[in-house]
Amino acid sequence: MPAPPAHCSQAVQQALFCANGACHIIDPPSFQPHTPLTDQNIIELIERSRPGLRRGSLLVADAVLADPAFAANTSLAELSARAGVSEPTVLRFCAALGCEGFTQFKLRVAQSLVLGAPMAHSLLTQEDAPSVVATKIFDHTITSLDWTRKALDRGAIDRAVQVLLEARRIEFYGYGASGVVAIDAQQKFPLFGVPCTANQDSHQQLISASMLRPGDAVVAISNTGTTRSLIEVVRVAHERGARVVVITGSDSPIVQFADVTIIVETLENTNIYTPTISRLAALVVIDILSTSVALQRGPAHLAEIQDMKKYLAEKRVSGII
Q1: What is the pLDDT of residues 205-243, one digit of tens each?
Q2: Are strands 243-248 and 196-197 parallel, antiparallel or unpaired?
Q3: 16 pairs with which residues across the strands?
Q4: Apex CA 277: angle with CA 205 and CA 150, to 5°?
Q5: H-assigned helices in the chain
Q6: Most buried residue among 71, 77, 118, 151 by CB atoms closer than 10 A?
């Protein structure tokens, strides 16, 4: 990748990226996301880029730098009002920083605040030794899960637990990494105390959804919430009268068919080596739901779970429960 032209000032050089022999200022909306800039601490990136920004983007940058905590928790309309610019100007500013929308921009600002250190410190490289990789992955995972914990809507958890407590059966739906979470949820069916299924095939999911009735429940897991086939399955389940719990990363299209929506915000890193934090966070939410349901079913149900564990212990050499 060529360096920026030597005649550029240092500030401008820091606000440029070069590809195929051409350099581009990061302010225009043509800046492409998923460049190496997406792995940097976004607060530091804004500070370095500030001298080369156009007036509108400069106003947004100053508003963010003046109060990063506000920027991490505000709405698009509120940030544009504080900066004194239009909402499209804020969106162009976000795109120039490599963010795919305002939500990702807020998460990256929050990530910068939570980590308190440049993202480069946790960025994995091919030169990292296994011991360094271990440290970086643990640090990144712990920090990200802590962010998810703080942002989690406890009221939504309570409502979802009530839906599952009242369900006659539960269907878990998900694809890819979310499909792994669905399988893990189905494995915990003794805790839920009712029959549970986790079909991976889209046709099987549609068939099962079309056979649901009032009194049944669906837990649909999708970090993006934009997978068309999953949205279709959830729509059918909703129309059949089943109650739907959606676990997703944002206020995504799939939530339109949800009775309860659990937003699982994560500090997802786009680096290809980084573990999928959204999957880990969703697994934790499943643990929360299954354990909460088991506890609320009372002593008799817990006694059954204990008996189940005794039978499993007999399969082990140690005999330990």
Answers
A1: 999 999 999 999 999 999 999 999 999 999 999 999 999
A2: unpaired
A3: 25
A4: 105
A5: 10-14, 42-49, 55-66, 68-73, 76-83, 87-96, 102-115, 130-151, 154-166, 176-187, 189-192, 202-210, 228-239, 277-296, 299-313
A6: 71
